[in-house]
Design brief:
Blueprint: H1 7-11, E1 29-35, E2 40-46, H2 59-66
Antiparallel strand pairs: 1-2
Length: about 70
């Protein structure tokens, strides 16, 4: 399990919606990403390494950075 803020939160920038947040490893870690089409934060299983910056440890973190649009 990863500890600390998600990459997008560290950078203070909006996540890139085009990059897959899942990553390449095989861990089973619940994370959240912002779904641009649905205009909401949704859960997904993160593999533990790499992946895009559209990845947050909690729904609250996702909504704080991306906003609640739904």
């Amino acid at each position: 399990m990863l500890w600390g803020p998600a990459p997008a939160a560290i950078a203070g920038a909006r996540p890139d919606p085009l990059l897959s947040p899942r990553g390449e490893c095989r861990r089973y870690t619940l994370r959240w990403y912002y779904n641009q089409r649905a205009a909401e934060c949704r859960p997904f299983v993160y593999g533990g390494c790499r992946g895009g910056t559209n990845r947050f440890e909690s729904r609250e973190d996702c909504e704080r950075l991306c906003g609640r649009r739904a």
